[in-house]
Amino acid sequence: MTDLRVVKTLENIKNGFVVCIEKKTFSSITIQEITTAAKINRSTFYKYYEDKYQLREALVNETMKELVQSIEQHYVAEKKQIILSADILKQQLTFMWSRKDWYMLLWNRNMELYVYEDMQQIFEKSLQKSFKLLPQETVESISIVQKHELFCKIFAACVMANIKWWYKAIPLVPVDAMVTIIMKSVTEGMYSAFSLNAHMVLKGKTVSEVK
């Protein structure tokens, strides 16, 4: 049974870390600053973490594990479907939108890590795994996956770049609109994705309204 006091303490430590990393680089942050922001004493911090490096590693690893589980649930688990599915992509984007603030913090230069690139690599590897699980006749019927490793790299980069742009530049745009732009980028090319139809999407049209 989970001890709610432990859960609360770990959440406080995480929140204290967030407060600090928003203001300073990781290398310049002290344990005292984290504990002050978390409103706990140093002994409580050391009960759960050896140092700030272990704390950062634990937070990042937990996030990466959760992302892997989400991507594999949405892509690998759907191995009977064609990988280019707007419905599956929508599920993944919805999940990632719900973690917008946390992901943006992890991508902050103050973290002194390459979390964005690591996330993109996770996406790429999971997509490659999903291709290997597809029935062979299905794979052979999709011309775009003749070079599936390159496709996975491009698709993962496209998804991640659009998510980052979405978070920072156009947060009011709905999930459906981003699904349309990403799908068009991959299937029809960038010109089509950012043509008049895409601009219509950004103004509020849904996927079904864009032809």
Summarize the structure in words.
The chain is built from twelve helices and no strands. The chain has 211 residues and is mainly α. It starts with a helix and ends in a 9-residue tail after the last helix. It has helices at 4-21, 31-38, 42-48, 52-74, 86-97, 100-106, 115-133, 136-140, 148-169, 175-187, 190-193, 196-202.
Summarize the structure.
By secondary structure, the chain is mainly α. 69% of the residues lie in helices and 0% in strands.
Quantity of strands, as a count: 0
Coarse structural class: mainly alpha
How is the biggest beta sheet arranged? none
Number of domains: 3
Distance between the first and last residues' Cα: 52 Å
Q: Which blocks of ≥5 consecutive residues have pLDDT under 50?
A: 206-211
Order of helices and strands: HHHHHHHHHHHH
- Summed up, the helix count is 12
Task: State which percent range the strand residues make up.
Answer: under 5%
Q: What is the helix fraction of residues, given as a range?
A: 55-70%
Outline, from the CA principal axes?
elongated
C-alpha Rg (nearest Å):
20 Å
User: Quick check: average pLDDT?
Assistant: 83
Secondary structure layout plus pairing:
Blueprint: H1 4-21, H2 31-38, H3 42-48, H4 52-74, H5 86-97, H6 100-106, H7 115-133, H8 136-140, H9 148-169, H10 175-187, H11 190-193, H12 196-202
